[in-house]
Amino acid sequence: MDAASEPEGLYARERPPGKSLEARLVRRVLSRLGDPPIAFVLAWTGERIVAEGSAPVAQLRFADRATLLGVLSDPRIRFGDAYSAGRIEIEGDLIQLLQVIYRMPPEGHGSFTHRLADWLRRPARNTLSGSRSNVHRHYDLGNEFYSLWLGETMAYTCAYFPTEQASLDEAQVAKMDHVCRKLRLQAGDSVVEAGCGWGTLALHMAGRYGVRVRAFNISRQQIQYARVRAREQGLEDRVEFIEDDYRNISGRYDVFASIGMLEHVGRENYAELGRVVRRSIGPDGRGLIHSIGRNYPAPLHPWIERRIFPGAYAPTLSEMMQIFEPAGLSVLDVENIRLHYALTVREWLARYEAAVAKVRSMFDEFFVRMWRLYLAGSIAGFEAGTLQLFQVLFAPRESNRIPLTREFIYPR
Amino acid sequence: MDAASEPEGLYARERPPGKSLEARLVRRVLSRLGDPPIAFVLAWTGERIVAEGSAPVAQLRFADRATLLGVLSDPRIRFGDAYSAGRIEIEGDLIQLLQVIYRMPPEGHGSFTHRLADWLRRPARNTLSGSRSNVHRHYDLGNEFYSLWLGETMAYTCAYFPTEQASLDEAQVAKMDHVCRKLRLQAGDSVVEAGCGWGTLALHMAGRYGVRVRAFNISRQQIQYARVRAREQGLEDRVEFIEDDYRNISGRYDVFASIGMLEHVGRENYAELGRVVRRSIGPDGRGLIHSIGRNYPAPLHPWIERRIFPGAYAPTLSEMMQIFEPAGLSVLDVENIRLHYALTVREWLARYEAAVAKVRSMFDEFFVRMWRLYLAGSIAGFEAGTLQLFQVLFAPRESNRIPLTREFIYPR
Predict the structure, then answer these.
(1) Of A330, A340, A412, the CB nearest to B385
(2) Which of B166, B182, B321, B367 has its Cα between 20 and 30 A from that of A386?
(3) Which of B99, B160, B177, B295 is most worth mutating to test chain A (most A CB atoms within 10 A of its CB)?
(4) Do B3-117 and B128-409 share a fold?
(5) Is the domain defined by A3-117 classed in CATH 3.40.190?
(6) How high is the pLDDT of residue B125?
């Protein structure tokens, strides 16, 4: 039966539930998607559509026909916008719903139209000025906003939970110590950090490990905040915060560290990043890059990339090797800690919801819902395994100043 | 000055040392190579050539002009053959000499002639029959031969030294336990092993961890030896040794393990290996692949590939990802333990030298020297960092039956 051959229009409302054109379209789409456990409610007909035999994890209430048709025609962009605009309400567990969606088979992935659509959605390239613009849009939303939900450390990257019971702040400190142990920091070492956020790791390294740090970031608001913290902690003689691009790093250091910057570097710049790393650490240093990643090459979710992270990309390990292989760097250790990022963002989302009235007063309801969806989607992605978190430890390929085992990372 | 314009021939012998055509040619080559600390001795002129300002780590004594010219024209193949044939004698430390050579900049790497030469040297492809032929040439040299120098475990793969003081046998057992811990083996688990050597790991897993193992290998001599060991250890009901190709693995298992087989798989078969792994462990299993690797794509040393390991290739991490990415497998952990392989082969070489009279009686002097060079070259490669050893732990991408941290690998 062809839906297009059915009469449409005013009569639809008077039909029995589940019989309108839209309802039959939804049913057909759900069937093509393998009957996921999601209920659709069409507010304008009162119909509720559920795939046969499935107990829905959540219910999507569409406010009007235009929203429904928009979402069905371009779900990857329109769903997020419609949710943010309040044209879709989610009844049930948002994170579980998103997990169901992320676990669906990637339909048409790699097709010509899919690739064309990705190309059309391309953001500002990560040139020096493009990066500045892309980073500004996200990280300069205001330090106050981020301080509402990042916890005391103001670390906006995946934490490390020694146990699932650790608090967010404990896990952020544990992450920094995990990174510092992997890097075998010694008092007196010099460290260069690329993409330092609000300065949390740089200050932790200097304060706890007695090293000197030069930390680069192109977000003005973050750098200003970091400098205030350095003064407050009496570390301004040991930590220098530099408002500049990682490509302008100069000098020689014992250690290169970059936590959560690679997502904004752009694949076209991986070889240059490798050269920067290599010249920074010379023949005897070591380094660590920590980044969201993928199991197979795929663009970031286009809605996230458009509304939240312009210019961002989560690489596969194979793509990350384009940093290391041409630059003469040897990978010593890769750890995938994706479940930690799910735990981290669950903590962020809880704090975000607790402060939602404040967020609403700073922005608007669209923003509130947009960021809720982004955070919930991140949890779902890391739990469903569509997103990874890789920590890659490396050294110059000719260096034998490398540890025999990894026991030192796990002291008792 | 053009060497070709000088008169050559009978007069050369009567010149002062260092003045013959060959000596000047050697000097020129050493200079182009950056004056490495290697001395050349030309037996037929009595000349000794050393780069200025360098204290040689070793001295190469060439028996005749033809050998010298052959090595200078095609060093990567001819050096090994000439050494094996006794036309070159090494005075000094063979391993240090090879390290100096391996640390030289890769001259002309990637040039057209280089790539052409690599292509001309291609071995039998790793089809089902090609693999059998390639594996037969190396692993069926005789169990007696390998038992002279592999130690009691008969493990012919990189060991794991908890400390540098561990013995070879201790380190081989530690390697197996390291792998079993990474794989979180539980009593009752089923394991499939691809490329099981003489059965050491399969028997260790069954005997110490109470799992059932099906172990595949296409080397007949190894499989026969492994079956005898299984009977001797009373494990024949728990370990099945199957003389067949990994591509013919069928059935479903909790764990996939492959230690030191990937080197023989061939890049053209990585995607198929991934499919075999994926169908073997289903949505809930886990696996580990352990392989010699590289920091950047390069063929195996052509002499090693021709004389020792036909059809072998050591992949980069990026190339290894061609196994995992298309197959829906997620990399959890990569450990590079190249220094352990240098320690391992040092132990093998010492045992080999202690048994060299026996080796000579089984084969001949050419074989003795060929294998000495191969073992010494392996030590040099792992110490110089031109060879890596990667252990890659993975799980199906949708599996959340993955550990939160790696603490369990390092019990106290």
Answers:
(1) A330
(2) B182
(3) B295
(4) no
(5) no
(6) 62
Q: Tell me whether residues A103 and B335 touch, CB distance under 8 A.
A: no
Angle between helices B21-32 and B65-73 (to 10 degrees): 30
**Residue in B317, B384, B388 closest to A317 by CB:** B317
Provide the CB-side half-sphere exposure for A312 (13 A, CA): 24
Q: Determine the distance from the C-alpha atom of residue B105 to the mean position of all C-alpha atoms in its chain, rounded to a whole number.
A: 21
pTM equals 0.89
Partners of A402 on chain B (C-beta within 8 Å) are: 339
User: What DSSP character marks residue B386?
Assistant: S
Provide the pLDDT confidence category of residue A235 given band limits of 50, 70 and 90. very high
Give me the interface pTM, i.e. the ipTM: 0.88
> What is the maximum span of chain A, computed from C-alpha positions, in angstroms?
79
Q: Residue A303 — left, alpha, or beta (φ > 0 → left; ψ -120 to 50 → alpha)?
A: alpha
CA distance A395 to chain B (A): 11
Domain ranges (residues) in chain A? 3-117, 128-409
User: How does DSSP classify residue B225?
Assistant: H
How many CA atoms are closer than 13 Å to the CA of B62, on its beta-carbon side?
25
By three-state DSSP, how is residue A294 classified? strand
pLDDT of residue A118: 43
> Which residues have C-beta within 8 Å of that of residue B184, sequence separation ≥ 6?
B286, B403, B408
Q: Determine the pLDDT at residue A125.
A: 62
Worst-scoring range by mean pLDDT, A27-31, A104-108, A276-280, B405-409? Answer: A104-108
Q: Is the dihedral of CA A227, A231, A233, A234 positive or negative?
A: positive
User: What is the model's pLDDT at position A307?
Assistant: 85
| Cα B102 off chain centre by | 15
Q: Please name which of A78, A76, A83 lies closest in space to residue A58, comparing C-alpha atoms.
A: A83
DSSP at A311:
T
Cα gap B273→B253, rounded to integer Å: 15
**pLDDT score of A121 more than 60:** no
Minimal C-alpha gap between A374 and chain B (Å):
21
CA A184 to the chain's CA centroid = 27
Q: Which of A339, A385, A404 sits opposite B164 (nearest CB)?
A: A404
Each residue of A125-154: b (16+ CB within 10 Å) or e? Answer: ebbeeebbebbebebebebebbebbbbebb
Q: CA A243, A249, A251, A254: dihedral to nearest 10 degrees?
A: 100
By three-state DSSP, how is residue A252 classified? coil
* Structural fold of domain B128-409: Rossmann fold (3.40.50)
Nearest to A325 among B295, B326, B331 (CB): B295
Q: Which residue is listed with tokens 């980044």?
A: A291
Q: What is the 3-state secondary structure (H, E, C) of B1-55?
A: CCHHHCCCCHHHHHCCCCCCHHHHHHHHHHHHCCCCCEEEEECCCCEEEECCCCC
Short-list B221, B252, B262, B215, CA closest to B236: B215
How buried is residue A207: exposed, middle or buried, by Cβ count under 10 Å (0-12/13-18/19+)?
Answer: middle
Whole-number Å distance between alpha carbons of A401 and B107: 26
* Cβ atoms of residues A394 and A286 within 8 Å: yes
- Residue contact B295–A397, C-beta within 8 A: yes
Task: Tell me how many degrees the CA angle A238-A182-B397 measures, rounded to the nearest 5.
Answer: 130
